[in-house]
Design a protein that fits this description.
homodimer; mainly alpha; Arc Repressor Mutant, subunit A; 0% strand
Chain lengths: 206, 206
């Protein structure tokens, strides 16, 4: 029962709420200070739980980090909805670009991409975390690819276009744009990166 | 005398060599394990110096981190030479893309971009480091822009093209590509990102 091992014991409603509170506190702290800068004691205090409660749900910081990756994957994808699930015309792609840029503007470009930041910090030191991040990025990429595939099926995108490659290229522009926007505290890089990706997609329009 | 404050005391030749050995050891460890995962004691041991020697050159870990950023900026730019300084035709841009991809292939995509990784880890927790990283990325971007500006002056790139914007867009593709290649341990993302950037530049060729 792999799923039960990963999720911990089957939880009561109250248990699920407590676990969720811990994960949300951990995700917020790790977004602000990084994983290394967040101790389980910080998380315990922020979530308002006891040490024994924390360890009941998460046997180690590494388990907690995995739950944070799962949580941030859902949060990052959800923050891009409803646009992300229907990127099947240029107008939708433009609306999605505007949404991504607006989210960064709201945050003053602080924190960068929650998944990208975790990836940069954890890829070399936590192979399990790296694998979970691969899966998270794959879902993001798949959502973009699905929209482009729908455009191609409707005959709006050339048969020469490779929706999988275009989706990967778009995600590189998003990730690099978010990182440079974070460093510069300026939305220009993420907007510029997305503009390039959309211009590139436009070259395949029929 | 700001420069002296930043550089520490004026050094003898032997002093400069010791300082350099410390910075190189710190850069390597921080590349492998992150800044948070690298203690000054780790650096001291790897560089083969005493504590008092380390503190003679670097009053704190933060000072050492700033020296590592300066070192990695030079190293990242140097690793892209001679291509980076003459990106003034499509052939040169293609050769540069191949060099960036080859460097990642050699490393098995481990570590990602030394500057990008430092940026992701430090942007929220060290404002001085963030500013130094902004300056490092600006040099990289300027090198790309200068090549494109030369192309435009020679009449090979349309007057409609904005070399500054194209350089920023290219750097977003590089950074996002390097991050996704690091996570996936696969050169496809960085190659795909660079291919997109070069395709986008090609749309402005005359």
């Amino acid at each position: 029962m792999e799923a039960v091992t990963d999720e911990g014991p089957r939880l009561t409603r109250k248990g699920r709420a407590t676990r969720q509170r811990i994960v949300e506190a951990a995700a917020q702290l790790m977004f602000e200070r990084g994983v290394a800068g967040t101790s389980t004691e910080d998380v315990r205090a922020a979530a308002g739980v006891s040490s024994s409660q924390l360890y009941h749900y998460f046997a180690s910081k590494q388990h907690l980090v995995r739950a944070v990756i799962a949580h941030q994957t859902e949060a990052v994808l959800a923050a891009q909805e409803p646009q992300l699930s229907r990127l099947d015309c240029m107008g939708a792609l433009e609306a999605w670009r505007d949404l991504v840029v607006a989210l960064q503007t709201q945050r003053g470009c602080e924190g960068g991409c929650p998944l990208g930041s975790l990836a940069a910090e954890l890829s070399e030191i936590d192979p399990d975390a790296r694998q979970e991040l691969v899966a998270g990025f794959a879902r993001w990429e798949a959502a973009i690819r699905d929209g482009l595939t729908a455009m191609q099926r409707r005959g709006e995108l050339s048969a020469r276009a490779d929706p999988g490659l275009l989706a990967l290229q778009t995600l590189t522009a998003v990730q690099g744009g978010l990182l440079l926007s974070q460093v510069r505290r300026d939305v220009d890089p993420v907007r510029a990166g997305l503009d390039m990706a959309l211009s590139h997609i436009r070259t395949f329009l029929i």
